[in-house]
Specification:
The protein has 178 residues and is α/β, with parallel strands linked by helices. The protein has helices spanning 17-31, 67-76, 93-101, 103-107, 130-143, 165-176; strands at 4-9, 35-40, 79-87, 90-91, 115-121, 147-154. Strands 1, 2, 3, 4, 5 and 6 form a six-stranded mixed β-sheet that branches. The protein binds flavin mononucleotide. Flavin mononucleotide (FMN) binds next to helix 1 and strand 3.
Length: 178
């Protein structure tokens, strides 16, 4: 069945590793017949949640920034792909801001279960992605009960001899199997 897939590209760098992996995933998913859109955090302004509690009263989020159009995309999506570089052994602050702001949908009961997948990209060894992988497994899968459709890490981007191509292939296959 064709799905609407939203890829959240949590890298502030356009055209670099995470962004290219998102594109490879999208190519695979499009070829498999899915409708795919990418949301890049790059160039966007998405504040952290300020706990104003307006969403607890079933109101929309009080902050009028680039998260507003994204709420619509999140609600419409059957599947959400989280893609993030690793900064300080974690997902980027930009990615986390998007996730925290999803709380407005969660508390309003507008947060249905979705299919999901993740792509994490680190300059160092694969274990640099451990916290992000734990977050994906413990929060996205175990707490939100989203349906895991795949997770990949792309380590050692800062190391000599790093080649993105095999990881692009993996992301493409993940998209094909979305
Ligand atoms: C502020 C900052 C912190 C980083 N921290 C880590 C880290 O803790 N572990 C790691 O392996 N790489 C770390 N990196 C490297 C990035 O994960 C790596 O360069 C990655 O390829 C960036 O993704 P991009 O190429 O899509 O921009 C860090 C980079 C920046 C800018």
């Amino acid at each position: 069945m064709a799905k609407k897939i939203l890829v959240i590209d949590g890298s502030p760098r356009v055209g670099k590793n995470t962004d290219q992996l998102c594109d490879a995933f999208m190519k695979g998913a499009q070829e498999a017949g899915h409708e795919v859109v990418k949301f890049r955090v790059a160039g966007k302004k998405i504040n952290g949640c300020i706990h104003c509690a307006q969403c607890f009263k079933n109101g929309p989020c009080s902050q009028k920034d680039d998260m507003i159009p994204l709420y619509d995309e999140i609600e419409k999506a059957d599947m959400i792909v989280l893609a993030s570089p690793i900064y300080f052994w974690q997902i980027t602050a930009q990615t986390k801001a998007v996730i925290d702001r999803m709380y407005a949908l969660y508390v309003a009961g507008r947060f249905q279960r979705k299919d999901t997948a993740a792509i994490f990209v680190s300059g160092g060894d694969a274990d640099c992605c451990d916290e992000a992988v734990s977050f994906y497994k413990n929060v996205i899968i175990n707490r939100l009960h989203w349906n895991d459709k795949g997770m990949m890490v792309c380590p050692r981007t800062s190391r000599e001899g790093f080649e993105l191509a095999p990881h692009l292939e993996k992301a493409y296959e993940m998209g094909k199997n979305a």
